[in-house]
Design a protein that fits this description.
The complex is a heterodimer of chains A (about 300) and B (about 260). By secondary structure, chain A is mainly alpha-helical. Chain A is about 65% helix and about 0% strand. Chain A has helices at about 5-35, 35-40, 50-55, 60-80, 90-100, 105-115, 125-135, 145-155, 160-170, 180-190, 195-205, 210-245, 250-255, 290-295, and strands spanning about 270-275, 280. Helices cover about 80% and strands about 0% of the residues of chain B. Classes of the chains: A mainly alpha (about 300), B mainly alpha (about 260). The interface between A and B is medium-sized, with 30 and 32 residues.
């Protein structure tokens, strides 16, 4: 080996060792700081408006970065089934201060905020504040009124406020006709399973994000299962009144003429008949919102 | 070896001083003196906070600007003026030239930072006297800024060893910005899939990590910085700078200077 080649070999080896050392040190720093370290900075920021002034005109780019951070923060907490989403609202607030026209941040951010933990932050009041800010900044965008009405109805159970939101949204040029229908339904019936199905159906249709669509689908499946379980339990009660005992299998109800075939849940799996006449789904994880509507109605 | 290195180091430092680099200290002091009373008039209870944020940010920004704009000319200027040939015709090795230049610029930045720190503490004393024990913690923030200088100087010297001054400045500044968002790059990698995931991971290890070196907000709010963080950030800055300088040496050793 030539002396120069030997020198290069030794230097390359040292280089690799130094780089490996820097990677190890960085890995240690990352583990000490935690994955949310950068996001914690929002706690020190006096306001998003100040950040906007300091962004030297690149506020749009910065808003995109903050929106990405908010989504990543929500995603990591959601996967970890966390019960606390303390940084979510400050991140969304800064994002929308930086770019008040970033509709996705209002639309999806408010859903992230309003859902109950661990599905979301469980902060419907902050979700309403965020959407109202969006409406102030984007008064011609009728879909934000839909989101507002939806949160008022679903999470805050304030039917009057929901009606108002749907009504105001329906007056904006370009709003779809069912906004008026929603307003009417709120005014006349308040909380019922049919309205919930219609609302989640609309969310499913309008959302372009896969996660939101999936959540809407889970809500719809849970509502469907709730309706079916209600009906099945009613028939089990009828059977018990007739015979004096609870059925031990679905076949008993079939023989009594109360059922045609084995009832299946929205996933195509048979409902489970429990002792004492209770009806359940086999895999409750597929129906995370099961029972919500029955509890509300009872 | 040591006398040759120290000669190149001191010459680089003297040259920077002759270039009136330390004039930025006057602007720095003016900013500090003007900021606190100004913000106390238009806001409430953020006099100290503003002074600390502004002071430490100014130390960092001035340092990075000096590191980039002096660093880009360290090699190319010597080639343009033909002084490099005089140096290398003496018993000076190429790696000694690069390392000496690096140490000279770091010494300049360190001197600058020391003067700025004195000015910063003087302003802090003037507006918030007496100084508290928490104010000593601000030195950790300044120490981390110095570590930042070690890395950015090495990066600039690396680009300067093979590229033109304009491109060196562009590359260094771009890498500084990317390094500031390196944690976002790591988070992006954690949530992406396939080739993008591994590409983002690799990039997050390769680009300098400036995010963990920025504790200005933390110390401004009197939050402590863990001892382990100081230790590992020091190790990281030294190892990363050494890696980059070694690459610069390898490139410069092979460069045809004829």
């Amino acid at each position: 080996m030539k002396p120069s080649a030997k020198k290069t070999f030794v230097l390359t080896l040292v280089l690799m060792l130094l780089f490996a050392g820097s990677v190890l040190a960085l890995a240690k720093i990352n583990s000490l700081r935690g994955s949310q370290a950068t996001l914690q900075d929002v706690l020190y920021m006096p306001s998003g408006k100040l950040i906007k002034r300091m962004s030297l005109g690149y506020s749009g780019l910065l808003a995109d970065i903050y929106w990405t951070r908010a989504v990543q923060y929500f995603g990591s907490k959601h996967i970890a089934q966390s019960m606390h989403y303390d940084l979510l609202y400050p991140l969304l607030d800064i994002t929308t201060d930086l770019d008040p026209q970033l509709i996705a941040a209002y639309d999806y951010g408010s859903i992230f905020l309003s859902e109950q933990p661990p599905q979301g932050a469980g902060q419907p009041d902050k979700a309403v504040a965020l959407v109202e800010k969006g409406i102030r900044e984007n008064p011609a965008y009728w879909r934000l009124y839909f989101t507002l009405g939806f949160i008022q109805y679903q999470n805050r159970h304030d039917y009057h406020a929901a009606q108002e939101a749907f009504e105001k949204g329906s007056e904006i040029p370009g709003a779809l006709p069912w906004m008026k229908v929603m307003a009417a339904r709120m005014a006349e019936r308040g909380k019922d399973i049919g309205t919930a199905t219609a609302l989640w159906g609309a969310v499913y249709q309008m959302a372009s994000d896969k996660e939101i669509k999936h959540t809407a689908q889970l809500h719809l499946a849970s509502i469907q299962a709730d309706i079916a379980i209600d009906e099945l339990e009613r028939r089990v009660q009828t059977y018990q009144q007739r015979t004096g005992s609870f059925p031990s299998a679905w076949a008993d109800l079939e023989r009594a003429g109360l059922l045609r075939g084995i009832p299946l849940d929205p996933g195509g799996v048979p409902y489970q008949l429990q002792p004492g006449g209770r009806v359940e789904v086999l895999n409750a994880k597929k129906y995370p919102y099961l029972g919500e509507w029955r509890q509300n109605q009872h | 070896m040591i006398p040759r290195l120290s000669a190149i180091t001191s010459n680089t430092f003297r040259e920077a001083v002759r270039d009136r680099v330390l004039y930025n200290l006057i602007i720095f002091v003016l900013i500090l003196l003007a900021s606190a009373p100004l913000f106390s008039q238009i806001s409430i209870d953020i006099e100290r906070l503003m002074l600390v944020n502004l002071g430490l940010s100014a130390i960092s920004i001035f340092g990075v600007i000096i590191a980039i704009f002096i660093g880009i000319g360290l090699v190319s200027k010597e080639i343009d003026k033909k002084t490099l040939y005089t140096i290398l015709s003496r018993p000076v090795r190429r790696w000694e030239f690069i390392v000496g230049k690096y140490l000279g610029l770091v010494l300049t930045l360190l001197t600058n930072a020391v003067f700025m720190t004195i000015g910063f503490y003087a302003a802090l004393y003037l507006y918030t006297r007496p100084l508290s024990a928490a104010d000593a913690r601000l030195l950790i923030g300044i120490y981390f800024i110095v570590l930042e200088f070690l890395i950015i100087t090495a990066v600039t010297l690396l680009f300067s060893s093979f590229s033109s001054p304009i491109f060196s400045a562009l590359f260094s500044f771009a890498l500084f910005v990317i390094g500031t968002f390196s944690e976002d790059l790591r988070n992006f990698a954690a949530y992406s899939h396939g080739v993008g995931k591994w590409g983002a991971y690799a990039a997050s290890w390769i680009v300098p990590n400036f995010a963990s070196l920025n504790v200005i907000s933390q110390v401004a709010h009197k939050q402590p910085v863990a001892g382990a963080m100081v230790l590992f950030n020091t190790a990281y800055a030294l190892l990363y700078s050494a890696t980059v300088i070694l690459i610069a040496v390898l490139i410069f050793e092979r460069r045809n200077l004829k």
